[in-house]
């Protein structure tokens, strides 16, 4: 009995506390009712109208009177929310719009635009913060950037410059060019070469083909024929043996290492005199530093890789 | 036809013997065409040799250090002059009576008031698929068979399009989130424009399955924000946003339902109304509001998407105007407390009930929320009856329709 | 779920049920689309309008009652006749783009030439139809008249094109190879390639035949054998001059 009474009381209270919107609700809806739908749209099932409305009208003259909680809603921060990768999609759309805007500007010839290193795929991905982007999608973005970069530099709009800044790498590797080494006042060009643990410095002057290695002639310094040849291979391969004099200082390592370090040093010095020889020297194998070194010995091994013999028990 | 430099050509002609040109004016016989072509070719070769022998380079060398040509400064002025000339010459020539300009459908889409059978006809909305591919559920929308394909009845299209536009307007007015989906190639710009107009969302890439049914996993990392009635962001609610579920659309407009069945199915599971372009081979049951039209014609899709986008724009305008007048036309988000305050016990309860949840489950939830247990649960029909008694009926369907 | 899934059509009813349950717990928040969907419910689906009636025939059930009917216009026969007589007219390029949807209204078929429309087979059909309708001509008579007008204007067009061609050439234009020249060039290239291939084939076959008849070794072995070892081998090392 007591329970029933309490429950009835609660219901009465609820009805009193029912939101005021129920009484006012359809003011907006009825005012925006546009036209009667045609007969063609009569529904097959007759709807039982439910007494709810989506738009409770809160009409107060001064907006400050509406508490903030009564007028807020949650929306996605980006219209691309449902694509699952909103930041990337927004970037793509922004660049596409930019390209559409400046499509008619004159462009430079292909390959003559300033070289710019765009962000790598991984860098861009971490820049956006773990959005599931594929490399192929990022390629689309880079293609647009590439096209924007081809707008003629004198007409490049500031807007495009700013947009491209976002996708550039922090360090532009193409800006890092080696300082050209000059021939000094005595007509000498110095080249430095290394191989194994040897280091060679070679000075090249125009001359008749004399070679001095650590103060001695080539034949004195290198006993082996093969080493003599490899020391001046750069000159020999380009048929310049009788056109330059070589003065070389070689330190460290053994005979072969010193000879081959000299190859590199002479080739580099020759390149200072005649830069056009680079392809020929590369074909002759004089430009690449041989990075091989003695592999270190490891614990548990006899040598670098050799294992002690396996003994049963 | 390639026209070489004017001065060269004129110079050559003025040097040429006059009798040749006189003979050419008189000639009109057919068999001389080939010979005259040969002559012309020979002349062209001689022009080319002249051009090649001319000093000066046709392509400016570009300095790879500074990326400038010899006349880099000049290009700006040349381009400005080119633009000026273009503006000058724009009004010249015949004016073609209103004709189809493909880009205008995206830049300035038609409005719901522009819907006409002519517009739909011109955009090829009536072309269905081969008769062998039809879905008999679309029999109502089909006008007849022509050349082996079904022809969609354009008055049906127009009526359904108007109805869909009305729904979009109303939802936008009540600040519902509208999602425009068109995942076929070429539909992206229309979709983005419609979303921009109506303040909704767009999707032109691919629907990630589970975006609605498994939103926290799929879209959980997407940012959301709290806005007021003027669509201005309200700061201070960031902590409360973290624990909320992902946002779901309130209305989905799908331009190619054939490829997006997963999306439409998820909408059906979550009770979200959908609008879709239903070609004669599509299933009209997949969407709430079908628009029978040709979904393979980009022009037709752009017209329909543009109209719905404009409809959304109208609703948004109305909502903002009401906000200016001090009216809130939408239900505010619930479950928020002012920044710095604690949530009450009642607010901590789960809010949304699944379909089929019974009164008993509600009782259980109430018990968990430390509310007094009700010993005598009411039968459902009693509650419904009570609700109906208490609230006056404003929307009587029979009165309306 | 069954064969048909009506959930998309029944969003409103579902939402109402949910709300009724939630309302009892004082948690009812109707979605934004709630009242507009109530006001404009989805249209009927899966309705089959009766498309045709068939006279009751004895022993046969009426069939295809609900299938759409073919759309037929009186011009269709005229069109079929014209294009049957002039099949190459179908090979000409045709504009299928509509401007504002009222394009056909702007045309006046009291004359065969229309501003903004290329003279083609359709012009003949429309002109013939107009003549039959408004001048009371018979079908064949109208066809002859329209056809002859068509020939006349087509001839004038040809002359115009030829004169334009000549004028252009007189003022220094030149044209690339036409489709015929281009086709001939392609054909020539193919023919030359085939000739080369065929000569080689014949040579090989002759060798094979001679080998079979004489029974002696062919020189195929020498062809298949690896090339001269000297050519492949490394160059002999040069004597190194003592420096």
UniProtKB/TrEMBL annotation, chain A:
Gene Ontology CC terms: mitochondrial small ribosomal subunit
Protein name per its UniProtKB record: Small ribosomal subunit protein uS9m
Disordered: annotated span: 27-52, 294-313
GO BP: translation
GO molecular function: RNA binding; structural constituent of ribosome
Pfam families: Ribosomal_S9
Family that this chain belongs to: Belongs to the universal ribosomal protein uS9 family.
NCBIfam families: PRK00132.1 (NF001099)
Domain of life according to the entry: Eukaryota
Species this chain originates from: Trichodelitschia bisporula
Keyword terms, alphabetized: Ribonucleoprotein, Ribosomal protein
InterPro entries reported for this sequence: Ribosomal_Su5_D2-typ_SF, Ribosomal_uS9, Ribosomal_uS9_bac/plastid, Ribosomal_uS9_CS, Ribsml_uS5_D2-typ_fold_subgr
PANTHER family: RIBOSOMAL PROTEIN S9, SMALL RIBOSOMAL SUBUNIT PROTEIN US9M
Transmembrane segments: none
TrEMBL record, chain B:
GO biological process, one term: translation
SUPFAM superfamilies the UniProt entry points to: Ribosomal protein S2 (SSF52313)
Pfam families associated with the record: Ribosomal_S2 (PF00318)
InterPro entries (alphabetical): Ribosomal_uS2 (IPR001865), Ribosomal_uS2_bac/mit/plastid (IPR005706), Ribosomal_uS2_CS (IPR018130), Ribosomal_uS2_flav_dom_sf (IPR023591)
Stretches of the chain forming a coiled coil according to its record: none
Keywords: Ribonucleoprotein, Ribosomal protein
Name of the protein this chain belongs to: Ribosomal protein S2
CDD domains to which the protein is assigned, alphabetical: RPS2 (cd01425)
Lineage summary: Eukaryota, Fungi, Dikarya, Ascomycota, Pezizomycotina
Taxonomic source organism: Trichodelitschia bisporula
Gene Ontology CC annotation, any one: mitochondrial small ribosomal subunit
The family this protein is said to belong to: Belongs to the universal ribosomal protein uS2 family.
Keyword Transit peptide attributed: no
GO molecular function: structural constituent of ribosome
Signal peptide (residue range): none
UniProtKB/TrEMBL annotation, chain C:
Gene Ontology molecular function terms on file: structural constituent of ribosome
Subcellular location: Mitochondrion
Keyword Mitochondrion applies: yes
Region spans: Disordered: 208-243
Pfam families reported for this sequence: MRP-S25
Species lineage: Eukaryota, Fungi, Dikarya, Ascomycota, Pezizomycotina
Biased composition (Acidic residues): 231-243
Chief location of this protein within or outside the cell: mitochondrion
Gene Ontology CC entries for this record: mitochondrial small ribosomal subunit
The protein's name: Small ribosomal subunit protein mS23
Family label: Belongs to the mitochondrion-specific ribosomal protein mS23 family.
Keywords: Mitochondrion, Ribonucleoprotein, Ribosomal protein
């Amino acid at each position: 009995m007591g329970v029933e009474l309490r429950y009835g009381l609660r219901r009465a209270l609820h009805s009193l506390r029912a939101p005021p919107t129920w009484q006012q609700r359809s003011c907006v809806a009825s005012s925006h009712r546009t036209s009667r739908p045609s007969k063609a749209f009569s529904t097959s099932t007759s709807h039982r109208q439910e007494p709810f409305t989506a738009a409770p009208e809160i009409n107060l003259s001064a907006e400050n009177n509406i508490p903030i909680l009564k007028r807020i809603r949650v929306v996605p921060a980006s219209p691309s929310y449902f694509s699952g990768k909103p930041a990337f999609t927004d970037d793509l759309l922004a660049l596409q719009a930019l390209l559409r805007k400046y499509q008619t500007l004159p462009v430079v010839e292909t390959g003559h635009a300033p070289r710019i290193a765009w962000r790598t795929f991984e860098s861009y991905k971490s820049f956006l913060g773990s959005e599931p982007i594929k490399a192929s999608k990022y390629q689309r973005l880079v293609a647009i950037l590439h096209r924007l970069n081809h707008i003629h530099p004198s007409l490049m709009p500031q807007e495009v410059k700013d947009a491209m800044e976002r996708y550039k790498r922090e360090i532009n590797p193409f800006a890092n060019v080696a300082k050209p080494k000059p021939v000094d006042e005595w007509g000498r060009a110095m080249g430095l070469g290394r191989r194994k643990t040897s280091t060679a410095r070679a000075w090249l002057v125009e001359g008749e083909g004399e070679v001095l290695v650590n103060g001695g002639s080539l034949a004195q310094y290198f006993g082996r024929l093969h080493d003599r040849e490899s020391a001046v291979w750069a000159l020999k391969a380009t048929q310049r043996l009788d056109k330059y004099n070589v003065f070389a200082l070689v330190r460290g390592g053994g005979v072969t290492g010193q000879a081959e370090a000299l190859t590199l040093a002479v080739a580099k010095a020759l390149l200072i005199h005649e830069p056009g020889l680079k392809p020929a020297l590369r074909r002759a194998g004089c430009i690449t530093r041989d990075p091989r070194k003695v592999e270190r010995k490891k614990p548990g091994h006899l040598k670098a890789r050799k294992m002690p013999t396996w003994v049963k028990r | 036809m390639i026209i070489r430099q004017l001065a060269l050509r004129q110079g050559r002609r003025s040097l040429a013997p006059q009798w040749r040109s006189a003979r050419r004016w008189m000639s009109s016989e057919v068999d001389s065409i080939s010979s005259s072509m040969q002559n012309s070719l020979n002349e062209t070769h001689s022009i080319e040799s002249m051009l090649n022998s001319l000093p000066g380079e046709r392509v400016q060398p570009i300095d790879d250090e500074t990326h400038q040509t010899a006349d880099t400064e000049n290009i700006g002025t040349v381009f400005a002059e080119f633009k000026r000339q273009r503006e000058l010459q724009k009004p010249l020539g015949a004016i073609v009576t209103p004709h189809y300009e493909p880009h205008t459908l995206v830049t300035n889409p038609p409005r719901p008031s522009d819907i006409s059978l002519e517009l739909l006809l011109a955009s090829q909305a009536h072309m269905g698929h081969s008769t062998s591919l039809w879905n008999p559920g679309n029999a109502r929308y089909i006008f007849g068979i022509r050349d082996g394909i079904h022809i969609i009845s354009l008055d049906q299209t127009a009526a359904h399009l108007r109805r869909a536009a009305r729904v979009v307007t109303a939802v936008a007015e009540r600040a519902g989130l509208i999602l425009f989906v068109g995942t076929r190639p070429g539909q992206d710009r229309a979709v983005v424009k419609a979303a921009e107009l109506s303040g909704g969302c767009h999707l032109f890439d691919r629907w990630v399955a589970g975006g609605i049914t498994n939103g926290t996993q799929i879209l959980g990392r997407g940012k959301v924000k709290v806005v007021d009635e003027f669509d201005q962001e309200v700061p201070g609610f960031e902590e409360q946003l973290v624990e909320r579920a992902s946002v779901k659309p309130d209305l989905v407009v799908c331009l190619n339902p054939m490829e997006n069945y997963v999306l439409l199915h998820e909408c059906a599971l979550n009770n979200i109304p959908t609008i879709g372009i239903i070609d004669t081979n599509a299933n009209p049951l997949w969407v709430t509001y079908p628009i029978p039209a040709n979904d393979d014609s980009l022009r037709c899709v752009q017209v329909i998407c543009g109209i719905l986008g404009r409809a959304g724009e109208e609703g948004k305008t109305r909502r903002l105007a009401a906000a200016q007048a001090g009216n809130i036309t939408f239900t505010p988000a619930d479950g928020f407390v002012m920044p710095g305050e604690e949530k009450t016990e009642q607010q901590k309860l789960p809010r949304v009930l699944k379909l089929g949840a019974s009164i008993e489950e509600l009782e259980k939830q109430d018990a968990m929320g430390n509310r007094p247990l009700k010993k005598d649960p009411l039968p459902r029909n009693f509650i419904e009856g009570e609700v109906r008694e208490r609230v006056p009926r404003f929307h009587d369907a029979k009165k309306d329709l | 779920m069954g064969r048909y899934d009506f959930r998309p059509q029944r969003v409103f009813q579902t939402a109402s049920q949910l709300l009724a349950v939630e309302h009892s717990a004082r948690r009812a928040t109707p979605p934004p689309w709630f009242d507009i969907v109530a006001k404009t419910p989805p249209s009927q689906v899966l309705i089959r309008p009766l498309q045709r009636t068939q006279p009751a025939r004895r022993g046969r059930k009426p069939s295809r009652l609900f299938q759409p009917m073919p759309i037929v216009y009186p011009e269709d026969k005229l069109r079929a006749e014209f294009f049957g007589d002039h099949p190459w007219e179908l090979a000409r390029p045709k504009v299928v783009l509509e401007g504002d949807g009222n394009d056909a209204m702007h045309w006046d078929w009291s004359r065969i030439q229309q501003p903004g429309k290329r003279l083609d087979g359709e012009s003949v059909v429309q002109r013939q139809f107009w003549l039959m309708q408004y001048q009371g001509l018979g079908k064949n008579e109208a066809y002859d008249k329209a056809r002859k007008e068509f020939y006349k204007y087509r001839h004038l067009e040809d002359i115009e094109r030829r004169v334009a061609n000549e004028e252009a050439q007189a003022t220094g234009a030149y044209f690339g190879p036409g489709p015929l020249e281009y086709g001939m060039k392609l054909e020539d290239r193919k023919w030359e390639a085939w000739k080369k291939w065929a000569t080689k084939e014949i040579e090989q076959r002759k060798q094979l035949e001679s080998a079979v008849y004489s029974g002696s070794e062919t020189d195929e072995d020498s062809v298949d054998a690896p090339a001269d070892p000297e050519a492949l081998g490394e160059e002999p090392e040069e004597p190194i001059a003592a420096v």
